[in-house]
């Protein structure tokens, strides 16, 4: 039921807090519609003044009304910068509640409810901003002629003109602050500059016992994994990468072995017992079989970062950086706590691989998107390679694409443009023999090859080449996009994988159709902007056109890889773990007469069938 809201008057301070004035209560004799929680609001926002003042304070609503009143607002520089004076821009209620004389009114929800009772101010529907219902009409500090009043006497020697023009404060809100909690902003241990804290003598003694050299590596690494997770803030983006790397390295993950531990039981355990009780990653003992499993931190790191992770999560720089930092932090932890000093050299090599991956993977992706370049594309169009017949600018069936706003002239290269760019490249970089073959139209394809390549040298264009291309661009009136060509020298590279070949061992002792002596070098002409991202050791899966005159054309690049690329059988383990084979009597192919009729056997078979796949799946 609605009630009347009245209050006594009080001396109210302005938001400038430099001047004070006495304001009569605008609603002392009026009745307004009360808020449903009016009693709570009045109980919260009414406050007693100091003992020197016998009267009580007034509602928050009257304080805020004074801030926006015609008496205070025209000279309130701080508030004018947010509301814009006559523009009557909405001001954040949180900012108003931050005023020194408003901080005592809490909670904020009740302050908003009280402000909605005002007949002078208007609160937004979401309760976040407030403004006057009727904008300010007179002049204010924002007007250049505000102080041009001849009736006001002042001493010119002490006059301080207001700044002109007075800027309006643009309130910008960080979009990430609302979604990130305080705990998310705390150090996680995965920062690039994070340093492991010094160990106390007691902690050092415990770790000497946990990671004693007489214990098997399987025991030590299992405890170290759990303690590493305990010492880091495992946010989702870190835990996801870490769990994938653990599985790639042969570490199983599952629920905790001891689910019902009490705090008293945990306090009675030593550090190693507690780590094992809380562990969710386990290293099975069959990993100790050196004929099946090998401890190789550097090799696993190479296979994970160069092959599996980019293939499944892409080459986005922030994802690559995150993956490298998670692995880098784990390797540093193992080295600092002396978990496996016998593999310290491998851990140091793995740290170098993380640094190389963070630098090379984004470059390899950029090069893969840019190759093969305009010169090689032009040659491919002319000699019937992978780029031939891809140009759609002169196709009648592509008119519908143009009507939809698609610039189909950017798809492929026209034959006229291809001949111009290829001819200019031959004239500037080619030998006299190559230029003569091109002029006489005797350049032809001798062979087509599909092979893996490794970059061994990079030669950017020299000054003479750049000057010649600049002259050609001027000759064509800058209508033809010409970039100076450099040289990229590659050799044949044979990757290691799971491919098996059925070949006679007397002719192929290594079981493969090639040997290390089969390597061959190729020289390609590549644009300068593409060469900037190339690096020594970069791998490519490419198709090559070998032309007469010793000219090699990079027809198509299927994939680009970093210098330490390696494929490991662990990738098969990531996709699907092998199932345990179970033989059932019903599947033995026995005749009906030979099948056992024992009810116990039938029940046993049914239980096995109902159980489904093994727990290892």
Automatic annotation (TrEMBL):
<keyword id="KW-0539">Nucleus</keyword>
<feature type="compositionally biased region" description="Acidic residues">
    <location>
        <begin position="590"/>
        <end position="602"/>
    </location>
</feature>
<dbReference type="InterPro" id="IPR036388">
    <property type="entry name" value="WH-like_DNA-bd_sf"/>
</dbReference>
<dbReference type="InterPro" id="IPR002344">
    <property type="entry name" value="Lupus_La"/>
</dbReference>
<dbReference type="InterPro" id="IPR006630">
    <property type="entry name" value="La_HTH"/>
</dbReference>
<feature type="region of interest" description="Disordered">
    <location>
        <begin position="1"/>
        <end position="44"/>
    </location>
</feature>
<dbReference type="GO" id="GO:0031047">
    <property type="term" value="P:regulatory ncRNA-mediated gene silencing"/>
</dbReference>
<dbReference type="InterPro" id="IPR036390">
    <property type="entry name" value="WH_DNA-bd_sf"/>
</dbReference>
<feature type="compositionally biased region" description="Basic and acidic residues">
    <location>
        <begin position="34"/>
        <end position="43"/>
    </location>
</feature>
<dbReference type="GO" id="GO:0033167">
    <property type="term" value="C:ARC complex"/>
</dbReference>
<keyword id="KW-0694">RNA-binding</keyword>
<feature type="compositionally biased region" description="Polar residues">
    <location>
        <begin position="1"/>
        <end position="33"/>
    </location>
</feature>
<dbReference type="InterPro" id="IPR045180">
    <property type="entry name" value="La_dom_prot"/>
</dbReference>
<feature type="compositionally biased region" description="Basic and acidic residues">
    <location>
        <begin position="603"/>
        <end position="617"/>
    </location>
</feature>
<feature type="region of interest" description="Disordered">
    <location>
        <begin position="587"/>
        <end position="617"/>
    </location>
</feature>
<dbReference type="Pfam" id="PF05383">
    <property type="entry name" value="La"/>
</dbReference>
<dbReference type="GO" id="GO:0006396">
    <property type="term" value="P:RNA processing"/>
</dbReference>
<dbReference type="GO" id="GO:0003729">
    <property type="term" value="F:mRNA binding"/>
</dbReference>
<feature type="domain" description="HTH La-type RNA-binding">
    <location>
        <begin position="50"/>
        <end position="140"/>
    </location>
</feature>
<dbReference type="InterPro" id="IPR018606">
    <property type="entry name" value="Arb1"/>
</dbReference>
<dbReference type="Pfam" id="PF09692">
    <property type="entry name" value="Arb1"/>
</dbReference>
<protein>
    <recommendedName>
        <fullName>HTH La-type RNA-binding domain-containing protein</fullName>
    </recommendedName>
</protein>
């Amino acid at each position: 039921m609605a009630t009347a809201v009245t209050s006594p008057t009080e001396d109210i301070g302005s938001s400038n807090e430099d001047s004070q004035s006495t304001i009569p209560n605008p609603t002392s004799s009026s009745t307004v519609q009360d808020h449903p929680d009016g009693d709570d609001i009045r109980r919260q926002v009414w406050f007693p003044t100091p003992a020197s003042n016998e009267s009580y304070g007034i509602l928050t609503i009257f304080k805020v009304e004074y801030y926006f009143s015609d008496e205070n607002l025209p000279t309130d520089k701080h508030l004018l910068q947010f509301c814009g004076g006559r523009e009557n821009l909405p001001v954040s209620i949180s900012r108003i509640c931050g005023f020194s004389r408003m901080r005592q009114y809490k909670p904020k929800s009740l302050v908003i409810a009280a402000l909605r009772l005002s007949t002078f101010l208007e609160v937004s529907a979401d309760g976040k901003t407030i403004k006057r219902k009727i904008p300010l009409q007179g002049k204010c500090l924002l007007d250049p002629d505000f102080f041009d009043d001849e009736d006001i006497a002042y001493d010119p020697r002490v006059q301080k003109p207001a700044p002109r023009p007075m800027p309006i404060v643009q309130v910008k809100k960080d979009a990430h602050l609302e979604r990130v909690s305080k705990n998310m902003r705390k150090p996680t241990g995965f920062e690039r500059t994070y340093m492991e804290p010094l160990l106390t003598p007691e902690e050092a003694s415990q770790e000497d016992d946990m990671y004693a050299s007489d214990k098997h590596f399987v025991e030590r690494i299992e405890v170290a994994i759990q303690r590493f997770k305990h010492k880091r803030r495992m946010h989702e983006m870190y835990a996801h990468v870490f769990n994938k790397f653990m599985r790639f390295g042969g570490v199983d993950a599952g629920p905790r072995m001891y689910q019902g531990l009490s705090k008293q039981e945990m306090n009675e355990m030593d550090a190693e017992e507690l780590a094992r009780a809380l562990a969710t990653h386990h290293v099975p003992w069959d990993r100790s079989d050196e004929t099946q499993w090998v401890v190789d931190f550097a090799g696993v790191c190479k296979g994970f970062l160069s092959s599996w992770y980019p293939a499944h999560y892409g080459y986005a720089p922030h994802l690559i950086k995150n993956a490298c930092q998670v692995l880098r932090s784990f390797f540093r932890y193992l080295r600092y706590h002396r978990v496996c000093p016998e593999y310290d050299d491998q851990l140091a090599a793995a740290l170098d691989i993380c640094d190389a991956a963070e630098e090379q993977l984004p470059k390899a992706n950029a090069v893969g998107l840019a190759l093969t370049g305009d010169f090689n594309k032009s040659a491919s169009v002319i000699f019937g390679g992978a780029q031939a017949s891809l140009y759609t600018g002169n196709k009648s069936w592509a008119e519908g694409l143009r009507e939809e706003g698609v610039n189909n002239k950017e798809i492929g290269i026209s034959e006229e443009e291809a001949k111009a760019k290829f001819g200019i490249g031959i004239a500037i970089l080619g030998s006299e023999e190559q230029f003569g073959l091109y002029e006489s139209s005797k350049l032809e394809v001798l062979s087509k090859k599909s092979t893996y390549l490794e970059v061994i040298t990079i030669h950017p264009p020299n000054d003479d080449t750049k000057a010649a291309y600049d002259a050609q661009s001027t000759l064509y009136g800058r209508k033809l996009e010409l970039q100076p060509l450099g040289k990229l020298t590659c050799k044949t590279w044979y990757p290691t994988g799971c491919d098996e070949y059925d070949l006679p061992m007397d002719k192929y002792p290594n079981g493969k159709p090639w040997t290390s002596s089969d390597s061959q070098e190729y020289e390609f002409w590549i644009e300068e902007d593409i060469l900037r991202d190339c690096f020594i050791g970069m791998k490519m899966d490419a198709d090559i056109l070998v032309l007469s005159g010793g000219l090699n054309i990079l027809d198509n690049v299927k994939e680009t890889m970093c210098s330490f690329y390696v494929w490991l059988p662990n990738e098969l383990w990531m996709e699907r773990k092998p199932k345990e084979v179970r033989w059932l009597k019903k599947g033995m192919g026995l005749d009906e007469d030979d099948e056992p009729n024992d009810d116990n056997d039938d029940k046993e078979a049914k239980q096995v069938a109902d159980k489904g796949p093994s727990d290892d799946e």
